[in-house]
Specification:
alpha+beta
Length: 76
């Protein structure tokens, strides 16, 4: 999981109007073994952290979905 998805880390690959979008800055990313695996460390930019990270609860891949603004669509 990336753990720090925010507008500054979502970039255009080039300046063309149909440029692909890429994700940057994998400095605090973590590899999870399986979809049910979790992490506990507090990591990321405060304004984009999912509630489970702030509550110091185990969290998984869904925290990246929350960070990019789709958190209201994924069940906690």
């Amino acid at each position: 999981m990336h753990r720090d998805l925010k507008p500054e880390n979502i970039l255009f690959l080039n300046s063309s109007p149909d440029s692909p979008i890429v994700i940057a800055d994998f400095g605090i990313a973590k590899v999870l073994e399986g979809e049910e695996a979790t992490a506990m460390e507090k990591a990321g930019t405060l304004a984009y952290l999912a509630p489970e990270i702030l509550k110091k609860q185990p969290y998984g891949l869904k925290v990246d979905v929350w960070s990019i603004g789709w958190g209201h669509l994924s069940p906690s």
